[in-house]
Amino acid sequence: MVERWNRLREWKDYLEKAKLRLKVDSFLKDYLREAGYAGMSMSVTPLGTQISIYAQRTGLVIGVGGRNIRELTEILEKQFNLSNPQIAVVPIENPDLEPYIVACRVADALVKGVRYRRVARWAINRMMRAGALGAQIMITGKLGSERSRFEKLTAGYLPHSGEPAISQVKTAVVHVLLKPGMVGIKVKILPPNAKFPDVVELKSAPAGGEIAEVES
Question: What is the pTM of this model?
Fold first, then answer.
């Protein structure tokens, strides 16, 4: 009975931490959108809450003399009741492989009046040139007509089911309000470093090594 209670308590703690992580991530998506926010990781240690923020324009996150990051630290501490938050800002090596950044770019282009097919093709081409194994953009909503519809473009290989679709495909969704109505942009990317369970890697023998013969 005690063991079962402990398991339930551990599961409850896990769910609470997951909910908090989602809330913080949702807040940062809006707060740091202009900085090219791409994601975050968060862990609780005896010294406080360690937060790593991944962004395209790290200077906007930090601010002059660290002003912006100090303000953000205070907001996270008060709004989410985080214990001694310590923020590290990590630059993004290739923004064209980050689905949230790509989705925000598409949304911004739609707001400026760029045709949805044109911006979708542009984004797909950039993702594939950046090295993505596969990419997909789906735009849904009122796209130049009275009825809602969707436009989907796919390039390369993109698993839609199984473990790789869950653990390897990076996904982001962004909504934007246009004159005809609300439009949703969903971006999926299979990064170049994706690992598949059915792929076996063969390691070469060390230099100068010999292959032993097996006698039958």
Answer: 0.74
